[in-house]
Amino acid sequence: MTQDNVIEWIQDDVSKWLTETGHDKFVDLFLDHEIDGKVLLTLKEEDLKQMCTSLQKIGDIKRLYISLKQLQRDNMAVLFELGYIDIFPSSNFYSHHKHEIPVSGTINNEGSIEHEYYSASVSEDGHASHLPPEIWKAFISLAYLFIVTWITAFVMVIVHDRVPDMKKYPPLPDIFLDNVPHIPWAFDMCEVTGTILFAIWLAVLIFHKYRFILLRRFFALSGTVFLLRCVTMLITSLSVPGAHLQCQPRPVSEDWTSSTYMDLYNKIAMAYVIWRGAGMSIQGVRTCGDYMFSGHTVALTMLNFFITEYTPRHLYFLHTFTWMLNMFGIFFILAAHEHYSIDVFVAFYITSRLFLYYHTLANNQALMQRDSNRTRIWFPLFSFFESSVDGIVPNEYESPSSIVCNLIGTGKDIWNLVRSSICFRKSWRNSFNGNVKKNSTKEH
User: Fold this and answer.
1) Is the whole model's pTM more than 0.70, yes or no?
2) What's the sign of the alpha-carbon dihedral 57, 61, 67, 70?
3) Cα 111 to Cα 44: distance, rounded to the nearest angstrom
4) Label partner for 37 (CA 20 to 30 A): which of 229, 310, 362, 427?
5) Are 163 and 240 in contact (CB under 8 A)?
6) pLDDT tens per residue across all 444 residues of the chain
């Protein structure tokens, strides 16, 4: 008898569980008290003692309670969803000694499961036990990234128009740029390495079993980093890092009243060109002033970390290859003298730290739940997107045939939903028209 859907058990299923676990003498008692799966998971030792007043053998009650505790521990995720327990409910959890983490309730000696502490994730190996795809969240994260990329493109137009004059503000001293000669083709090679990383990441997404969770994490993290980049670009405008870059702000018309709307239209049009080309020079996009940290480094680092995180650990060659692409891509950025060294360093540090912080919280349910109020305030996107994930997302993959079958099944479900909605509308219209006709005949 499977324990994956205990919450859906009826009384007969509870009776089967009692029989299988060797507690046959309690079957009639549980039927009399109408114990189903949901009630079974929330039973306490005190409840068993009150129910079993006619039984004098305390050993039978204790053995039943041990089996019940094992069932509750195997279904912790269900109890979290029911709101029956919280992880680390006590605010002074860390007042205990490091190696004295309590496992059962010792505060009020009630023995209830609400007063237990858990220092690890729900399952023993840390992997999540409940991973709904929640496709709608992936679409919300995609919309978030879509909005952020548009904001980024518009900000890049603004900072390009206010780039400092190269004659008045020459390139700043830089250890790497001052000692490495300019390589004209290096920036194109950087974007080629980024394209290879993106192709690998796309293949991982196609075959990964939990692709929609990966998608929403990728969109949310990428959007957050690029939104932060918009702020840094607006705050400070650095001088152009190389004399080979021909950066001139667009001329501004003296007739401010007649050119305001036209100037806004031109900025939006230029932002669309940048957005459509993903800010890549191989797509014909050339911008200046978007410094303080490198967007290309952000993309390379984010792709590298996601590929290494969501592919099996034994694929050492793939992980080494992606890290080499990441490092070579960064080198090409600097060799092209398109960014200062500090731009690349800050971009790599912020992107990698944000990725690691996010996944540390997501992979450890205890850390996320212990201070949920602070998590909702400081990490609202994380709190929203990871609300249904209770552990580490396992790297499980699907075969092409299963992917096709899933697509067909999803298409059928969508078609049945559309057809049922159409039928419902037709029936509603027919009933509405019939009521109108009846009312009109009564009036006549």
Assistant:
1) no
2) negative
3) 7
4) 362
5) yes
6) 555 577 788 888 888 888 888 888 888 888 888 888 888 888 887 777 777 766 557 777 888 888 888 888 777 777 766 666 554 443 333 333 333 334 444 334 444 444 443 434 445 556 666 788 888 999 999 999 999 999 998 998 888 888 887 788 888 899 999 898 999 899 889 999 999 999 999 999 999 989 999 999 999 999 999 999 999 988 888 888 877 777 766 655 555 555 667 777 788 888 888 888 777 777 767 777 788 888 899 999 999 999 999 999 899 999 999 999 999 999 999 999 889 999 999 999 999 999 999 988 888 765 555 566 777 777 788 888 888 887 788 888 888 887 777 778 777 777 777 777 787 777 777 776 666 566 666 555
Q: Which amino acid is at 210?
A: Y
Using CA atoms, how far apart are residues 255 and 104, in angstroms rounded to an integer? 76
What angle in degrees, to the nearest 10, is found between the helix axes of 341-363 and 211-235? 140
Is the Cβ–Cβ distance between 236 and 230 less than 8 Å? Answer: no
For 279, half-sphere exposure in the C-beta direction (CA atoms, 13 angstrom radius) is 23
Contact assessment for residue 243 and residue 166, using Cβ atoms and an 8 Å cutoff: yes
Do 46 and 68 contact (CB within 8 A), yes or no?
no
Contact 240, 177 (CB under 8 A): no
* Residue 169: both structure tokens together: 């503000």
277-286 long-range contacts, Cβ below 8 Å, gap at least 24?
279/152, 279/153, 279/156, 280/191, 280/194, 281/187, 281/188, 281/191, 282/188, 282/191, 282/192
Nearest alpha-carbon partner for 388 in 134, 65, 204, 196: 134
Cβ(288)–Cβ(247) under 8 Å?
yes
Helix (H, G, I), strand (E, B) or coil at 336: coil
User: CA 365 to CA 86: how far, in whole Å?
Assistant: 11
Question: Among 47, 5, 11, which residue's Cα sits nearest to residue 27?
Answer: 11
Q: How far apart are CA 139 and CA 277, in angstroms?
A: 22
* DSSP characters over 318-344: HHHHHHHHHHHHHHHHHHTT-S-HHHH
Residue with tokens 């008692």: 29
Can you name the residues that pair with 208 across neighbouring β-strands?
397
